[in-house]
């Protein structure tokens, strides 16, 4: 890295990038890579301080009373003020731009990392009193129109700033790590990673300027003179390479690599011995009794059984566990649980427990006897959510307890892995452990508890099988996730469902585009769980319905074929195979799932790779590379027979392996709502 000064300009130069600043204002004006130049309007950092944003850039919205899944509001305001630039400080490997920001000193630290320009903010309270900081905004201005999208996130599709109403942001539904934009003749990947708290993301236009905002839910009482560091923003210009693969490479270069030592293949079934959440758990089986259903699951092709919580809990929700060390007597004894797990193992299946680390009700001994584990509000009272305390996952004693809890379950029951509820952390803790800030009970805590559960199974001698309920597609969780909780694809399907019946070709085009971007921008082998419904979505959130009721049986079957035959681990929820299980009438689909899962195992196998084909028809098409060859998969998402032209897509000789099709020269006609798999010679 070197620094050059010419007239009123300062240039920060690396082997691949030239970043130009205004010496008088500190503004980042452009980033150049080769012949490609990004025209910028600098970075504004604004802070929510004592009830308002200092520069008045956003509408203030306190995080104090938000739920764990809620993210900071992004509502841009016009006419913001500016921080006062006080000068540059040059270092051997960084450039620091200093500002006064109301009662705070702000330092924007610029450096180079993994071929990008990296920026983070350092804040210092220069007053003599504590300041309440709530929300921090990184707002990047681009002096250009842009066409942008959110790889791996929702809303899906591409957005042109020229079509947006000024100051009306497009905001991601989940925590978002990267915005990809087409700008002029090249691309910009603007990535953000906060190792401590959750954040929101949005893009809008002022009418002349495109603005990108990442807003971490920073919460802290800033002491006089105490430094606070927040966030890492990465500018990655891309000229000719595939911009989505560059996102994957950036995360890997930064050290966010997916775990590859655990279980990542197979078919999952989510269930509970008392039945389903949408039927209010009517079956009342003991675990040894429910074990008699395992041969049916094995015959259907199930490899992994995810049990909803069976730990001691009051009447009502099984997710309100009192003590996860104790099996609730309603589900039987320890011996009954061991019998269930042993029976699954005899059939070649694994069993996952569902852990609920957020904590029990406040009067339960686990909370009463461990007050330091409980998160607190500013006034010192308990943080309560779901009628339970919110534990601080950063507390090392609680982490050790969690490791030993999982280890004990391995030894007592032989259980193989874990689904982890509320793995994105809990409510902010205003009495945090050590030097953590209150908002550290977000991403940092979620990663910590995910690691603790995984470490418990490794300690017990198991090959790790970790499924954290982290549905935010951010790289922080890569190292401790064996299967990603793919709520993002479910959200895409919800978003697109208005198209599937009336405009199936458009549906297929948008879904193919999103899946391709997701695949290219995440590590190869980062296994995503694929589902059309889980215990939450069939009962109370989003569609609040079974897939067969929401889409219709035949459409649901076609979508199950898609999520089974693309990359990832398909999951079905208890009763998807037979509605009588949740006390409804309808077709029994065991034979459908049996054939579908058998076809996946026989013809796709353990393949982690996929190549998508854009057909411009209701037929979804993709190629799955397998050992010794390739497979072409076609799924018709229409009520009419539809054709696929193999010659148009430069596909050579085909051999039908399974499916309902007719062949005429290069034209393949696929029957309504059906799938076909071909061997590519």
Supply the key terms.
single chain; alpha+beta; Beta-galactosidase, Chain A, domain 5; 11-stranded antiparallel sheet; 39 strands; globular
How helical, in percent, are the residues?
10-25%
In the CATH scheme, what's the topology name of the largest domain? TIM Barrel
Structural Rg: 26 Å
Given the helix and strand composition, which structural class is it?
alpha+beta
Number of domains: 2
| Percentage of residues in strands | 25-35%
Average pLDDT metric: 97
Q: Which parts are unreliable, with pLDDT below 50 for 5 consecutive residues or more?
A: none
Main β-sheet, in a few words? Answer: 11 strands, antiparallel
**Count of DSSP H/I helices:** 12
What does the model show?
- There is one protein chain.
- By secondary structure, this protein is an alpha+beta fold.
- The chain folds into two domains: 2-253, Distorted Sandwich (Beta-galactosidase, Chain A, domain 5), CATH 2.70.98; 268-356 and 396-485 and 526-604, Alpha-Beta Barrel (TIM Barrel).
- 20% of the residues lie in helices and 32% in strands.
- It contains twelve helices and 39 strands.
- The strands form seven sheets. Strands 1, 2, 3, 4, 5, 6, 11, 14, 17, 18 and 19 form an eleven-stranded antiparallel β-sheet that branches. A nine-stranded antiparallel β-sheet has the order 7-8-9-10-20-16-15-12-13, covered by helices on one side. The protein has a seven-stranded parallel β-sheet with strand order 29-28-25-22-21-31-30, with helices on both faces.
- β3 (18-22) and β4 (28-33) form a beta hairpin.
- α6 (396-413) runs parallel beside α7 (443-459).
- The longest helix has 18 residues, at 396-413.
- It is globular and about 75 Å long.
- The two termini are 51 Å apart.
């Amino acid at each position: 890295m070197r620094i050059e000064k010419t007239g009123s300009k300062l240039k920060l130069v690396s082997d691949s990038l030239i970043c130009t600043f205004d010496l008088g204002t500190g503004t980042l004006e452009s980033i150049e890579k080769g012949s490609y130049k990004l025209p910028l309007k600098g970075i504004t950092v604004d802070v929510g301080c004592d009830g308002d944003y200092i520069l008045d850039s956003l509408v203030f919205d306190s995080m104090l009373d938000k739920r764990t899944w809620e993210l900071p509001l992004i509502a841009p305001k016009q006419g913001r003020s500016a921080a006062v630039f006080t000068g540059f400080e040059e270092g051997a490997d960084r450039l620091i731009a200093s500002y006064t920001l109301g009662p705070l000193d702000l330092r924007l630290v610029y450096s180079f990392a993994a071929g990008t320009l990296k920026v983070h903010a350092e804040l210092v309270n220069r007053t003599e009193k504590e300041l309440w900081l709530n929300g921090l905004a990184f707002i990047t201005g681009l002096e250009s129109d842009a066409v942008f999208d959110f790889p791996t996130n929702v809303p899906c599709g591409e957005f042109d700033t020229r079509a947006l109403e000024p100051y009306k942001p497009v905001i991601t539904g989940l925590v978002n790590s990267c915005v990809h934009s087409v700008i002029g003749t090249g691309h910009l990947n603007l990535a953000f990673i906060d190792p401590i708290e959750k954040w929101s993301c949005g893009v809008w236009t002022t009418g002349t300027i495109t603005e990108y905002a990442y807003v971490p839910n920073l919460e802290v009482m800033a002491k006089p003179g105490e430094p606070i560091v927040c966030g890492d923003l990465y500018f990655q210009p891309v000229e000719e390479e595939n911009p989505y693969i560059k996102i994957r490479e950036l995360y890997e270069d930064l050290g966010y690599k997916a775990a590859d030592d655990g279980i990542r293949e197979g078919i999952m079934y989510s269930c509970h011995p008392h039945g389903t959440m949408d039927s209010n758990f009517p079956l009342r089986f003991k675990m040894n009794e429910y074990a008699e259903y395992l041969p049916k699951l094995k015959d259907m092709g199930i490899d992994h059984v995810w049990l909803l919580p069976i730990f001691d809990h009051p009447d009502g929700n099984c997710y309100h566990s009192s003590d996860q060390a104790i099996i609730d007597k309603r589900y039987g004894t320890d011996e009954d649980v061991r019998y269930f797990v042993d029976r699954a193992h005899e059939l070649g299946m694994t069993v996952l427990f569902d852990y609920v680390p957020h904590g029990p009700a406040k009067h339960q001994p686990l909370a009463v006897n461990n007050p330091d584990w409980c998160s607190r509000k500013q006034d010192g009272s308990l943080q309560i959510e779901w009628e339970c305390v919110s534990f601080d996952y950063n507390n090392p004693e609680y982490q050790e307890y969690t490791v030993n809890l999982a280890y004990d379950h391995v030894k007592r029951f032989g259980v193989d892995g874990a689904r982890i509820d509320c793995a994105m952390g809990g409510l902010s803790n205003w009495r945090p452990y050590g030097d953590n800030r209150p908002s550290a009970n977000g991403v940092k805590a979620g990663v910590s508890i995910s690691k603790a559960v995984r470490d418990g199974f490794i300690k017990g001698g198991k090959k790790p099988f970790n499924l954290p309920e982290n549905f935010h597609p951010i790289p922080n969780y890569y190292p401790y996730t064996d299967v990603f909780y793919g709520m993002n694809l479910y959200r895409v399907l919800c978003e697109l469902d208005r198209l599937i019946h009336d405009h199936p070709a458009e549906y297929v085009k948008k879904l193919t585009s999103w899946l391709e971007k997701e695949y290219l921008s995440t590590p190869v082998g980062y296994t995503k769980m694929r589902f059309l419904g889980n215990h939450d979505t069939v009962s109370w959130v989003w569609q609040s319905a079974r897939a067969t009721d929401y889409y219709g049986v035949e459409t649901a079957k076609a979508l199950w074929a898609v999520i089974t035959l693309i990359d990832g681990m398909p999951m079905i929820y208890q009763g998807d195979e037979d509605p009588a299980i949740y006390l409804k009438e309808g077709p029994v689909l065991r034979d459908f799932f049996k054939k579908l899962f058998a076809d996946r195992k026989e013809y796709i196998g353990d393949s982690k790779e996929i190549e998508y084909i854009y057909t411009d028809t209701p037929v979804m098409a993709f190629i799955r590379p397998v050992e010794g060859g390739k497979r072409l998969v076609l799924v018709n998402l229409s009520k009419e027979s539809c054709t696929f032209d193999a010659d148009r897509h430069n596909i050579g000789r085909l051999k039908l392996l399974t499916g309902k099709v007719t062949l005429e020269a290069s034209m393949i006609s696929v029957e309504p709502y059906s799938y076909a798999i071909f061997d590519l010679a």
